[in-house]
Q: What sequence folds into this?
């Protein structure tokens, strides 16, 4: 407790940000802010459409609304702080503020990893066991799985944030990143963190590799079932439904694996920033666009709302 009090009373952290070595920082900032506004509008629109249209009150769209909520909170955790720092010229963040940002990021990234696996299971049941879908994905089961993703992510985030913020930090508090992230913070610690880094690897396996394995198994079964379909219409519909989810999965997990599982020798701090921009800012914008443009039900609901 005494160490925590001393840390909070110490100097703020300094986020070196995205614009340190950029030739045209105003252009980059404008692009990031436009992407954020698009993500904000797209995810809010997706949640409103699912709430308003009774035809979208199904487990698949309930899970999609949760994904939109996570993406909305995800981008809102970083971009407003980036905008404030850029416009004010101050890149500092308090110890408490860094802890809050770290907790939100760790919770949301963990919840989204688990939710994407739940969404793959939903598609597996719908295509491979359609007669049992109403039982296997009833509202109670669906709510239980979503609650489990949030609680699991919250518990994981709480453990990591408490431990990370209790570590002794050196005099230099310059974080080579645009937000507080555990790997970036560990570089400032004046102690051996190798054991904790092994724990982080185990956490990554639980929240990245296990969900990916579940997703691959689900889509392996889905592909096997689709190939046995004799109806071209049914095959096209199944592929259209699953392809949107697979695109989002590839974007999100691909960038996360590059960031957290590639050896440090294969990526620099600047490359880490670019990858982080991809899965913290770009993916939340792309998700609603992918699902709305490739989904006839969502497009139909949007036309109804605009028609009103």
A:
């Amino acid at each position: 407790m005494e160490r925590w009090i001393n840390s909070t009373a110490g100097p703020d952290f300094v986020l070196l940000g995205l614009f340190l070595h950029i030739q045209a920082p105003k252009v980059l900032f404008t692009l990031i802010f436009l992407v954020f506004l698009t993500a904000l509008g797209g995810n809010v629109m997706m949640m409103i459409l699912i709430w308003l249209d009774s035809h979208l009150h199904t487990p698949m769209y309930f899970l999609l609304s949760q994904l939109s909520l996570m993406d909305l909170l995800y981008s809102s955790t970083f971009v407003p702080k980036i905008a404030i720092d850029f416009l004010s010229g101050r890149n500092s963040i308090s110890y408490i503020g860094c802890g809050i940002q770290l907790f939100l990021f760790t919770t949301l990234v963990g919840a989204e990893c688990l939710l994407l696996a739940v969404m793959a299971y939903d598609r597996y049941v719908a295509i491979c066991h359609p007669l049992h879908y109403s039982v296997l994905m009833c509202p109670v089961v669906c709510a239980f799985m979503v609650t489990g993703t949030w609680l699991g992510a919250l518990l994981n985030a709480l453990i990591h944030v408490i431990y990370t913020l209790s570590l002794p930090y050196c005099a230099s508090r310059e974080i080579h990143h645009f937000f507080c992230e555990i790997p970036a913070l560990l570089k400032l610690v004046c102690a051996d963190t190798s054991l904790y880094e092994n724990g982080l690897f185990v956490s990554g396996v639980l929240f990245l590799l296990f969900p990916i394995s579940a997703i691959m198994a689900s889509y392996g079964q889905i592909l096997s079932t689709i190939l046995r379909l004799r109806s071209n219409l049914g095959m096209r519909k199944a592929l259209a439904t699953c392809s949107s989810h697979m695109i989002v999965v590839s974007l999100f997990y691909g960038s996360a694996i590059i960031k957290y599982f590639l050896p440090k020798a294969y990526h620099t701090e600047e490359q880490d920033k670019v990858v982080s921009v991809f899965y913290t800012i770009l993916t939340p914008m792309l998700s609603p666009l992918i699902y709305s443009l490739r989904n006839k039900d969502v497009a139909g609901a949007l036309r109804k709302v605009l028609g009103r």
Summary: Residues 1-9 have pLDDT under 50 and may be disordered.
